Amino acid sequence: MKKSIFFSMLLVVVLVLAGTNLVFGVSATEVGKQVAGQAAEQATKVNINSADLTQLESLPGIGPETAKGIVDYREANGAFKSVEELKEVKGIGDKKYEVLKDLVTVE
Fold first, then answer.
1. How far apart are the first and last CA of the chain?
2. What are the b/e assignments for 85-105, b being 16+ CB within 10 Å?
3. For the chain, what are the domain ranges?
């Protein structure tokens, strides 16, 4: 086997073992779309029915008091039936809800 072929094969093996996804015959634009799609799939919403205080505080505009308010509301009223029900929690008005609505789920 020629050295260049050997080293090419070795490089492929190293890249695969390192967890690199190798794509052959696909344009850079298509690879970019695939990567963007994978990133979107990995982005997970916070489930307001099961999230703990730390998870809730990771949301933009939610501090310790509002996170505790969400948990207290959930304990007093049961599971949130819709994301919009967040507006019932003290400290979450229309503006904050608009920021949160696509970042949270009730499922």
1. 56
2. bbeebeebeeebbeebeebbb
3. 3-42, 46-105
Would you state the structure tokens that stand for residue 26, as one six-digit string? Answer: 């696909």
Residue 103 · residue 45 · CB < 8 Å: yes
Residue 28 has pLDDT above 90, yes or no: no
Structure tokens at 103: 């970042």
| DSSP 8-state secondary structure symbol assigned to residue 49 | T
Question: With 80 as the cut, is the pLDDT of residue 94 above it?
Answer: yes
42 pLDDT band, cuts 50/70/90, is very low
Q: What is the mean pLDDT of the chain?
A: 83
Q: Where are the beta strands (DSSP E) in the chain?
A: 46-47, 104-105
Class of domain 46-105: mainly alpha
Three-state secondary structure call for residue 78: coil
Confidence of residue 33 (pLDDT cuts 50, 70, 90): low
Q: Running DSSP on this structure, what letter comes out for residue 104?
A: E
